[in-house]
């Protein structure tokens, strides 16, 4: 189980996010390793900008999604994370029809703040985006 304090089967991720932005964009959790997670996202009409390449905002949604999932899974039940800051450097274009894969690893898992690094690669393995997500740890409230 490594750094994870909770489990999330891939099916659970899909069910939980089916009607939310990650679900609408086709983001899938595909692997949960000892200290990392991988997610994929297709690049189709939903994800491109007018020049036919992946919209940078879609990359940020993928990064924030996988980082937030990791942040939550690294906490005990009853706790959650909320985003404080996300940044992204877009390094190479991704064409419509490709699929991108995000690899998320922790830089800091603290009591009150977490920092996650997310590398997004296109189908040929080229790094297309590097992102960092900072989250605040909060206790869940009833209701």
From TrEMBL:
Keyword Hydrolase set for record: yes
Keywords annotated in UniProt: Hydrolase
Any GO molecular function: 1,4-dihydroxy-2-naphthoyl-CoA thioesterase activity
Span of the signal peptide: none
Domain Thioesterase residue range list: 51-129
NCBIfam families: unchar_dom_1 (TIGR00369)
Official protein name in the record: Hotdog fold thioesterase
Origin species: Roseicella aerolata
């Amino acid at each position: 189980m490594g750094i994870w304090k909770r489990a999330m089967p891939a099916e659970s991720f899909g069910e939980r996010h089916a009607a939310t932005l990650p679900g609408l964009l086709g983001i899938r959790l595909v692997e949960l390793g000892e200290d990392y997670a991988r997610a994929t996202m297709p690049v189709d009409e939903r994800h491109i900008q007018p020049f036919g390449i992946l919209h940078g905002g879609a990359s940020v949604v993928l990064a924030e999604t996988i980082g937030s999932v990791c942040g939550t899974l690294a906490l005990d039940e009853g706790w959650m994370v909320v985003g404080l800051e996300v940044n992204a450097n877009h390094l190479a274009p991704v064409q419509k029809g490709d699929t991108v894969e995000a690899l998320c690893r922790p830089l800091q898992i603290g009591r009150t703040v977490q920092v996650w690094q997310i590398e997004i690669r296109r189908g040929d393995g080229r790094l297309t985006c590097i992102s960092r997500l900072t989250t605040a740890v909060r206790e869940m409230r009833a209701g």
